[in-house]
Each structure stands twice: as C-alpha cells, then as structure tokens.
C-alpha cells in the first residue's frame, strides 16, 4: 500500500478476491510491526468500506487486534472498521446477514 490512489484500489480489489491475502493482513497486524501493521490495517479498512460482508467473518479477530494494538497508526483503522460495522449493523438497510438464535 502506498499513497497512489490507483494502487490502493488495485490492492483492495486483490484482497476482496483472495481470501488468503486478506487473512495474511491479519497476521501482519498481529505481529505489531509499526509500518507494515499500519498498512495492513488500512488495507483491511479499505476492504471494509468496499464490502463490509467480507470483513464480518473476521470481526472477532478485529476485536482482539484492536484490544492488543499499541500504535495509533494501527488503532485508528481498526476503530474505523468497527465504526463502519456498527453503522452497517444499525442501518435500516442492513446488508449483513446475521444468524438468528433459535
């Protein structure tokens, strides 16, 4: 990820298509590498903006990462992801399918 808008869009598209690449981003964040971790968190935030359903399965991971994050550059994108998920969940046009308890 870098500052070029087109490269960010291309990388986001790659993450949307490749589940393994998306999972790899979570492992980068968990290593608490300042530079790479912040870029990985930002990449996941962009994926969430594009398709929140893609991130919903990893919500528990995101909560754990947010709880253990130590740098603002990682905390901010993770907080934004949680904010976006809360907005999607509470909106009247909820696009995330939730499992109902029986």
Describe the protein:
With 102 residues, this protein is mainly alpha-helical. It contains 6 helices and no strands. It has helices at residues 5-17, 19-30, 34-50, 52-56, 59-68, 72-90. The mean pLDDT is 86.
Short description:
This protein is mostly helical and 102 residues long. The protein has helices at 5-17, 19-30, 34-50, 52-56, 59-68, 72-90.
Notable characteristics:
6 helices; 102 residues; globular; mainly alpha; 0% strand; single chain
Rg: 14 Å
N to C succession of SSEs: HHHHHH
The helix fraction, in percent, is: over 70%
Q: Spans of 5+ residues with little confidence (pLDDT < 50)?
A: none
User: How much strand?
Assistant: under 5%
The secondary-structure class comes to: mainly alpha
List the SSEs and their pairings:
Layout: H1 5-17, H2 19-30, H3 34-50, H4 52-56, H5 59-68, H6 72-90
